[in-house]
Amino acid sequence: MTTMSRPKIAIVDPNTLAALGLKQILQHVIPIMTVDIFGSFAELMANNSDNYAHYFVAINVVLENKTFFMERQRKTIVLTLSLEKSSQLASFNSLCINVPEAELIRSLLALEQRAHAGGHNLPPMPKALQQKVLTDREIEVMSLIVQGYINKEIGDQLHIGLATVITHRKNIMEKLGLKSVSALTIYAVMHGYVDINKI
Predict the structure, then answer these.
(1) What's the pLDDT tens digit per position in 45-70?
(2) What is this structure's pTM?
(3) What is the DSSP letter of 51?
Protein backbone atom coordinates (compact mmCIF):
# COMPACT_ATOMS: atom_id res chain seq x y z
CA MET A 1 0.00 0.00 0.00
CA THR A 2 1.48 3.36 -1.01
CA THR A 3 0.74 6.51 0.92
CA MET A 4 0.87 9.93 -0.70
CA SER A 5 3.98 11.61 0.62
CA ARG A 6 3.97 15.19 1.79
CA PRO A 7 5.29 17.85 -0.59
CA LYS A 8 8.80 18.92 0.34
CA ILE A 9 10.54 22.27 0.71
CA ALA A 10 14.33 22.63 0.62
CA ILE A 11 16.12 25.39 2.51
CA VAL A 12 19.63 25.88 1.14
CA ASP A 13 21.55 28.25 3.40
CA PRO A 14 25.03 27.96 4.93
CA ASN A 15 23.73 29.92 7.96
CA THR A 16 22.42 27.00 10.05
CA LEU A 17 20.74 29.19 12.67
CA ALA A 18 18.81 31.19 10.05
CA ALA A 19 17.82 27.96 8.25
CA LEU A 20 16.55 26.34 11.47
CA GLY A 21 14.49 29.42 12.33
CA LEU A 22 13.01 29.58 8.83
CA LYS A 23 12.22 25.84 8.96
CA GLN A 24 10.23 26.29 12.18
CA ILE A 25 8.26 29.21 10.74
CA LEU A 26 7.59 27.38 7.44
CA GLN A 27 6.28 24.36 9.33
CA HIS A 28 3.75 26.68 11.03
CA VAL A 29 2.80 28.48 7.81
CA ILE A 30 2.49 25.34 5.66
CA PRO A 31 2.07 22.44 8.10
CA ILE A 32 1.48 19.90 5.32
CA MET A 33 4.98 20.41 3.94
CA THR A 34 8.13 18.54 4.94
CA VAL A 35 11.08 20.92 5.25
CA ASP A 36 14.69 19.79 4.69
CA ILE A 37 17.76 21.93 5.37
CA PHE A 38 20.96 21.85 3.30
CA GLY A 39 24.08 23.82 4.20
CA SER A 40 25.31 23.91 0.61
CA PHE A 41 24.27 23.43 -3.00
CA ALA A 42 26.33 20.21 -3.12
CA GLU A 43 24.25 18.77 -0.23
CA LEU A 44 21.04 19.60 -2.10
CA MET A 45 22.34 17.93 -5.27
CA ALA A 46 23.26 14.79 -3.31
CA ASN A 47 19.66 14.45 -2.07
CA ASN A 48 17.30 14.14 -5.08
CA SER A 49 17.24 17.88 -5.73
CA ASP A 50 14.23 17.69 -8.06
CA ASN A 51 11.96 16.15 -5.41
CA TYR A 52 11.21 19.60 -3.93
CA ALA A 53 8.13 21.73 -4.54
CA HIS A 54 10.01 24.89 -3.48
CA TYR A 55 13.55 25.99 -2.76
CA PHE A 56 14.27 28.71 -0.20
CA VAL A 57 17.84 29.62 -1.07
CA ALA A 58 20.43 32.10 0.22
CA ILE A 59 21.16 34.70 -2.46
CA ASN A 60 24.88 33.77 -2.66
CA VAL A 61 23.97 30.11 -3.36
CA VAL A 62 21.61 31.20 -6.16
CA LEU A 63 24.29 33.45 -7.69
CA GLU A 64 26.88 30.65 -7.60
CA ASN A 65 24.45 28.14 -9.18
CA LYS A 66 22.27 30.40 -11.28
CA THR A 67 21.67 27.95 -14.16
CA PHE A 68 20.10 25.35 -11.85
CA PHE A 69 17.82 27.88 -10.14
CA MET A 70 16.89 29.76 -13.32
CA GLU A 71 15.52 26.47 -14.66
CA ARG A 72 13.44 26.22 -11.46
CA GLN A 73 12.69 29.93 -11.18
CA ARG A 74 8.99 29.57 -10.27
CA LYS A 75 9.86 27.17 -7.44
CA THR A 76 12.75 29.27 -6.06
CA ILE A 77 12.46 31.90 -3.32
CA VAL A 78 15.68 33.85 -2.80
CA LEU A 79 16.55 34.68 0.83
CA THR A 80 17.96 38.21 1.05
CA LEU A 81 19.10 40.44 3.89
CA SER A 82 17.77 43.66 2.37
CA LEU A 83 14.33 45.00 1.52
CA GLU A 84 15.87 47.18 -1.22
CA LYS A 85 14.55 46.10 -4.64
CA SER A 86 17.93 46.99 -6.16
CA SER A 87 19.66 44.33 -4.05
CA GLN A 88 17.22 41.55 -5.02
CA LEU A 89 17.34 39.32 -8.09
CA ALA A 90 14.74 40.62 -10.54
CA SER A 91 13.72 37.27 -12.01
CA PHE A 92 13.00 35.54 -8.67
CA ASN A 93 10.58 35.88 -5.77
CA SER A 94 12.59 37.24 -2.84
CA LEU A 95 12.09 37.01 0.90
CA CYS A 96 13.94 39.37 3.23
CA ILE A 97 14.88 37.39 6.34
CA ASN A 98 16.45 40.33 8.16
CA VAL A 99 13.14 41.59 9.61
CA PRO A 100 11.16 41.08 12.84
CA GLU A 101 9.35 37.72 13.16
CA ALA A 102 5.86 39.17 12.63
CA GLU A 103 6.97 40.83 9.38
CA LEU A 104 8.69 37.66 8.13
CA ILE A 105 5.55 35.64 8.83
CA ARG A 106 3.42 38.22 7.02
CA SER A 107 5.76 38.02 3.98
CA LEU A 108 5.62 34.21 3.98
CA LEU A 109 1.84 34.23 4.24
CA ALA A 110 1.63 36.72 1.37
CA LEU A 111 3.95 34.54 -0.76
CA GLU A 112 1.93 31.42 0.09
CA GLN A 113 -1.38 33.08 -0.73
CA ARG A 114 -0.08 34.49 -4.01
CA ALA A 115 1.31 31.12 -5.11
CA HIS A 116 -1.41 28.88 -3.69
CA ALA A 117 -4.51 31.07 -3.48
CA GLY A 118 -7.12 29.21 -1.50
CA GLY A 119 -4.70 26.30 -1.18
CA HIS A 120 -5.66 25.03 -4.66
CA ASN A 121 -2.13 23.85 -5.47
CA LEU A 122 -1.60 22.25 -2.10
CA PRO A 123 -2.70 18.78 -1.00
CA PRO A 124 -5.60 18.65 1.47
CA MET A 125 -4.88 19.32 5.12
CA PRO A 126 -4.87 16.27 7.39
CA LYS A 127 -8.37 15.56 8.79
CA ALA A 128 -7.30 16.50 12.32
CA LEU A 129 -6.37 20.01 11.12
CA GLN A 130 -9.59 20.43 9.10
CA GLN A 131 -11.98 19.95 12.00
CA LYS A 132 -13.51 23.00 13.61
CA VAL A 133 -11.77 23.16 16.95
CA LEU A 134 -12.80 26.60 18.24
CA THR A 135 -16.21 27.91 19.23
CA ASP A 136 -17.63 30.92 17.36
CA ARG A 137 -16.76 33.19 20.32
CA GLU A 138 -13.19 31.87 20.43
CA ILE A 139 -12.87 32.57 16.70
CA GLU A 140 -14.04 36.16 17.30
CA VAL A 141 -11.49 36.56 20.12
CA MET A 142 -8.70 35.01 18.01
CA SER A 143 -9.48 37.34 15.11
CA LEU A 144 -9.13 40.40 17.35
CA ILE A 145 -5.93 39.07 19.00
CA VAL A 146 -4.15 38.64 15.68
CA GLN A 147 -5.30 42.08 14.54
CA GLY A 148 -3.34 43.49 17.49
CA TYR A 149 -6.09 44.32 19.97
CA ILE A 150 -5.26 44.07 23.69
CA ASN A 151 -7.47 42.15 26.13
CA LYS A 152 -9.39 45.21 27.35
CA GLU A 153 -10.17 46.33 23.77
CA ILE A 154 -11.34 42.81 22.89
CA GLY A 155 -13.61 42.77 25.94
CA ASP A 156 -15.05 46.18 25.02
CA GLN A 157 -15.68 45.17 21.39
CA LEU A 158 -17.34 41.87 22.27
CA HIS A 159 -19.09 43.18 25.43
CA ILE A 160 -17.45 40.58 27.68
CA GLY A 161 -15.37 40.91 30.83
CA LEU A 162 -11.58 40.97 30.97
CA ALA A 163 -11.44 37.64 32.83
CA THR A 164 -13.58 36.05 30.10
CA VAL A 165 -11.22 37.34 27.38
CA ILE A 166 -8.23 35.90 29.26
CA THR A 167 -10.01 32.54 29.63
CA HIS A 168 -10.87 32.47 25.91
CA ARG A 169 -7.25 33.33 25.06
CA LYS A 170 -5.94 30.50 27.23
CA ASN A 171 -8.46 28.02 25.78
CA ILE A 172 -7.64 29.02 22.18
CA MET A 173 -3.91 28.47 22.67
CA GLU A 174 -4.46 25.14 24.46
CA LYS A 175 -6.94 23.80 21.88
CA LEU A 176 -4.67 24.70 18.97
CA GLY A 177 -1.47 23.66 20.75
CA LEU A 178 0.13 27.05 20.05
CA LYS A 179 2.52 29.02 22.22
CA SER A 180 2.79 32.45 20.57
CA VAL A 181 0.70 35.15 18.92
CA SER A 182 2.85 34.67 15.78
CA ALA A 183 1.77 31.02 15.56
CA LEU A 184 -1.84 32.06 16.21
CA THR A 185 -1.59 34.66 13.42
CA ILE A 186 -0.41 32.00 10.98
CA TYR A 187 -3.27 29.70 11.98
CA ALA A 188 -5.88 32.48 11.63
CA VAL A 189 -4.68 33.63 8.18
CA MET A 190 -4.21 30.09 6.83
CA HIS A 191 -7.74 29.13 7.88
CA GLY A 192 -9.28 32.28 6.41
CA TYR A 193 -10.37 33.79 9.74
CA VAL A 194 -8.41 37.01 9.20
CA ASP A 195 -7.48 38.89 6.02
CA ILE A 196 -3.70 39.17 5.77
CA ASN A 197 -4.07 42.92 5.14
CA LYS A 198 -5.57 43.41 8.62
CA ILE A 199 -2.53 42.11 10.53
Answers:
(1) 999 999 998 999 999 999 999 999 99
(2) 0.65
(3) G
